[in-house]
Amino acid sequence: MRRVVITGAGTINALGASVAATLEAMREGRCGIGPLQIRDLDRLSVQIGGQIIGYDETAHFNRQQINLYDRFTQFALLAAREAIDQSGLTFSGELAARSGVVMGTSGGGLNTQDDNYRAVYEEGKNRVHPFVVPKLMNNAATSHVSMEHNLKGPSFTVSTACASSNHAIGQAFQMVRTGLADVMVTGGTEAMLCFGGVKAWEGLRVMSKDACRPFSATRNGMVQGEGAGMFVLEEYEHARARGADILAEITGFAMSSDAADIVMPSKQGAARAIMGAMRDGAIPLDAVGYINAHGTGTAANDKTECAAVADVFGHHANDLMISSTKSMHGHLIGGTGAVELLACIMALRDGVVAPTIGYEEPDPECALDVVPNEAREADIEVTLSNAFAFGGLNAVLALRRI
Amino acid sequence: MAGEIKEKVIAIIAEQAMLQPSDIEMTQSLDDLGIDSLGVVEAIFAIEEEFDISVPFNANDPGASEFDVSTVASIVGAVEGLVAAQKA
Predict the structure, then answer these.
(1) Residues 22-61 of B with CB under 8 A from A
(2) What is the pLDDT of residues A194-234, one digit of tens each?
(3) Rg of chain A taking only CA atoms, in angstroms
């Protein structure tokens, strides 16, 4: 089987509009969560989020593009530009035909749905803009990235709630690994911070009204974020032959389904995905130095995740670091795993482990080294990125330093 | 009134074509102006919004529609007809 490396990364999220800005914020333990600036905020009981404040679509796209690009598509395009620029690849001829896009999103064009439902239901309008469908469809972001960069190979969108990005990246990884493609642009994008998007989450009553504090005994729920993370995955020899700067190697991936409950996580399901990724990459347990946790800040997830890690790693669970960067950028739902993968790359490349900020008090049910509040320097050879979605669909990626 | 309709329709078409209204000639087709199929649909939407009319246009087969989009002049004429019919 072929080796798969990452040769480009891009992002826009509440911590910054580039990988460099995001990693700097993670190193400093900066919080990107704050008061939401959206319509009808007074009717929401949850009023905070990891919103990209000051984002100006007209700085990046012309009027006609804006008519076609929902916010989630715009984020994907910006992140993909950065990732592909960094990779140095241009796509034409045979390479274009052997390169594709697999992207995760959960809500797709939710802002477009929200705006247009409002227009027809609340304002009583009987006509909507002709591009509502091509703007809101979940695969719009994938398609526009493929069009902008001439990516003509296998391309589709994955939607598995909070695990969408990891499932997408894992799929792209397997496609390059098995020879279905030579280069894949992959990641995830989400723009759910609109009235309907936040209102729906409120209904579940798992949202915090003040902060995301994963693993802390004082945690009181998750906080939504928005943005995108995109990567260029490339076959190792292809990358080496052209002298590309290799950010990391993806060595393992596994998926599992809890087959148990539509919202409650399962320790066994999570553990099977973690163990599966280790086996897939033939990774010895003690090689793993850092895990980027799913770490949502809900009571259920964090204790279940810690128990799963303890089960898989045994004694080594006490020696590795596990942090949740959702404390800083919020939960990007379908885009979250992609932004979190940046923390894994930073650990491998820069030897800096991103912290779990907002940590106040130890929870005996989360008794692991969660890198509280301050980033740490460490020599990390292998990292894992966990994603455990509503619906019990789990996806874990393993990355190695190169 | 008729002059006003013509002016507004030309402004909508010019915006789709990313041209100045003064660059639009009545004999030009939307194709001449570089307006693709999505652009045609968007222009029709803008016309409906502007004049509060319903335009009988089917994107599956534009040629078969009652609404003649073959030239700028034909669009202006069709809109004038619809606006007049609405007032009658």
Answers:
(1) 38, 41-42, 44-45, 48-49
(2) 999 999 999 999 999 999 999 999 999 999 999 999 999 99
(3) 20
